Amino acid sequence: MNSITTHYAFLLLIVAGSFVHTGFVQQSVHVQVPEAWINEFHYDDVGADSLEFVEIAVTGEVDPERLAVVLYNGSPSQLKVYATHALSTFEIGTNEDGVQLYARLISGLQNGPDALAICYDEDGEAGFETLVSSGVTSQFLSYEGAFVPVDGCAAGHLATDVGVEETSSSPEGSSIGLEGGGTSYDDFTWTSMPASTPGTANAGQTFGPLAVRMGELRLVVEHRDVRLEWTTVSERDHAGFHVERLVRAGWVDLGFVASHGSEAGAQYTFVDRHVPQLPATYRLRLVATDGSSEYGHTAVAQATGSSMLGAAHPNPARSVSHFLVTAWHRGHYRVTLNDVLGREIVELLSATLESGASRLVVVETATLSPGAYFYRIRSDRGAAAVGRLTVVR
Fold it and tell me: Rounded CA gap, 162 and 7, in Å?
């Protein structure tokens, strides 16, 4: 349950028989608010936007008339409410392990930076207009940027950006949603959903008590390898993790990492060797001792400068220097030498390379003026990296 809001109490101060001050003071009070959160939404896709919607998850008993979704325009010239919807107008979806889902199509759900707030009527007597203007804010999330609105129930609150967004190139039928396992908002992680599921649990989402509470998942690119490092906060009845990578045909299982059997949590590592190309998307499938499973974190490994572009040697250089480039995918690569203003001095390489192929690039520095230069690599798929080279005499 969420709690805490404020109300204003009238203060009358009497000194020496005279009224010397009247006014209002702000007092903190605790209000029990049903745990409710935005579970999935869709607002932008290719062509004319269609089937925009918002999905809400609620735990415990709640009167739908006492909850509302308030939509905010985050444009700097606005920062105001542009639409409101009572939970009672949402379609009732599935109920899994006490988590009730509600969904509603909302035509005109705006592109960001915008936000969604869930507001609650703590005494059940406020009425809808009062609810959306001054009710208790139980959640306030934004997309494509955070801001503080000037009206509505979330006035004065800083929105929390979900960190995932849709664009005009997002496929139809996609969405932004939560994945993971648990029974409260903090158990889940925001991600892009290839296929929306309004009214039902998201792909990769399981409701119910957690056998494993995940910590951080980190990806480290080392040459042609990707090392996954993750932690758990607590574990019970846990067999281990399947590590999966997304390929064109779908998710593939790379291997299994057995649980350390520590109820207090543990650290884990898995290395995916000779990755065919970056970026690469990974996820963890958590397996319980009874064979059931649920999905944990998803993360993306990006190509880095150290993995595509070797260090120049010698550096500083007088007459000649060289460095190694490595292709992360099959495609056309172009390597250039640029000055500190970004202007191209010379093209060092223009070639089609196979995934994993390396080339030694030689830089003739004898004719260059002393100073700092940058050597850059870029592929036809947008992979890029840069290194620094100093020329001396």
Answer: 29
